[in-house]
């Protein structure tokens, strides 16, 4: 066994024992999907949810559109289109103030959001991230919050994500995925809470990027140090007496 292999095994064993971390915090690279903040309106993606039939609902020109369940639209907020809804809160970050506003339907298999073709590479790690905001209808049951599930090629990457039960702040949720031998990517976001009342929500700042993991200098230095010690001891045993 070479010293490099031995040092690698030592580092692996130490990491398994919790003595060192072999990887630092993971950060995703530039987004591979477009229109991530909905600045271009309902573009760059498809949805099984319907867009409200009245143009006034989309442009914010109506006092009340009474948006039916199973619909979605892109605006800076639901008011005045749906005054019975709670306030969704303005996006606090930079960029487009638009958001994807969803009035939950009754079919959990309907795609809320499905991006157009995404370029990706096999044997690579990716991270999907998005921000959600809860917008309960006035007087609605606060227990019926939206539950979001992301599918990579029809498979779940982790447990479903329940949006915040308390309206008032945007919250981030993430999903990690390893592409393996996949040759295509069908990315689908579902809302799986079946109760239509009370679980309206909005989305903003979606992204899908390559997951980059950097090795800390401390871990690398420990591996080098252990290798030096092993080499020195090996030479000492071989030295003539």
Keywords:
Jelly Rolls, 12 strands, 241 residues, six-stranded antiparallel beta sheet, alpha+beta, single chain, globular
Describe the structure in your own words:
- By secondary structure, this protein is an alpha+beta fold.
- It has one domain (31-214): Galactose-binding domain-like (Jelly Rolls).
- It has 3 helices and 12 strands; from the N terminus they run H-E-E-H-E-E-E-E-E-E-E-E-E-E-H.
- Strands 1, 3, 4, 6, 10 and 12 form a 6-stranded antiparallel sheet that branches. Strands 2, 5, 7, 8, 9 and 11 form a 6-stranded antiparallel sheet that branches.
- Strand 7 (147-152) and strand 8 (155-156) form a beta hairpin.
- Helix 1 (3-16) crosses helix 3 (217-238).
- Mean pLDDT is 73; it is low at 1-25 and 215-223.
